[in-house]
Design brief:
The strands form four sheets. Strands 8, 9, 10, 12, 13 and 14 form a six-stranded antiparallel β-sheet that branches. The protein is rod-shaped, with a radius of gyration of 40 Å. It has a domain of 128 residues: Sandwich (Immunoglobulin-like). The protein is mostly beta strands. The protein has one helix and 14 strands, in the order αββββββββββββββ.
């Protein structure tokens, strides 16, 4: 019996999934996923890459007129002719990409935990139904505002019960006390049994009217022990 319980607990450890890699967003993008038993919200937005303005064209230099020839006087020395200076055109500037400004934010949220109860709550009898239930809400909603982007999350739980005697039950009903409860189990032998409840959360998130599935699931484990006794028997004539 202990080996079965150890195997069950090892199987129902928390789920930790890597998030989907969000692509670079020129306007805005959001993502919601699970990681280390937490619900992760991410939002990112920016204006995209920009380039600097192209340089203005440089005007070509005007041609320099050639000097007119000077008549050589008999006595006057020859005047020196100054050659025009060469004008070097400036190099064209290459536009340089400028990194765009961007904003991003990330927060994490924990989901509700649960307690488990049963009835009769003191030494239930063999061959008599025991009612089990948990106080988990049937739905979890959350609204988060990250860098001006509103994200709506809706998650619902499902339940897997292990009653400790090799019996299991999967349901979306959290159960209730007698007489309206639907999660019941009858033990055929007296003894102390470990009862394990695994709650699995999954759901969707909405952003700008578009709904998407949340990547991954979150699992919570709750355990207790229950002692079942045999009914006293008395023979009479």
């Amino acid at each position: 019996m202990k080996a079965k319980i150890l195997f069950l607990v090892s199987v129902i450890t928390f789920t930790s999934l890597s998030p989907l890699g969000a692509a670079d967003c020129e306007v805005a993008c959001v993502d919601v996923y699970t990681q280390d038993g937490q619900l992760i919200f991410e939002a990112r937005k920016g204006s995209g890459p920009k380039a600097s303005a192209a340089p203005k064209p440089v005007a070509k230099p005007k041609p320099v007129a050639k000097p007119k020839p000077v008549v050589k006087p008999k006595v006057i020395a020859k005047p020196k002719v100054t050659a025009p200076k060469k004008i070097v055109a400036p190099k064209k500037k290459i536009p340089v990409a400028v990194a765009a400004t961007s904003l991003s934010d990330r927060i994490s949220k924990a989901l509700p935990t649960t307690g488990v109860a049963y009835q009769p709550n003191f030494q239930p009898l063999i061959n008599v139904p025991v009612y089990f239930w948990c106080d988990m809400p049937p739905i979890f909603r959350s609204k988060v505002d990250l860098i001006g982007e509103v994200i709506d999350v809706t998650m619902r739980p499902s339940f897997a019960w292990a009653f400790g005697d090799g019996s299991f039950k999967s349901t979306t009903d959290p159960g209730a006390p007698f007489p309206s409860g639907k999660i019941t189990h009858t033990y055929s032998r007296p003894g102390t049994y470990p009862v394990v409840l695994v709650t699995t959360w999954g759901g969707t998130f909405a952003h700008n009217g578009v709904e998407r599935a949340i990547t991954g699931q979150i699992r919570k484990v709750t355990a207790l022990t229950i002692t079942v006794v045999a009914a006293n028997t008395r023979f009479t004539n």
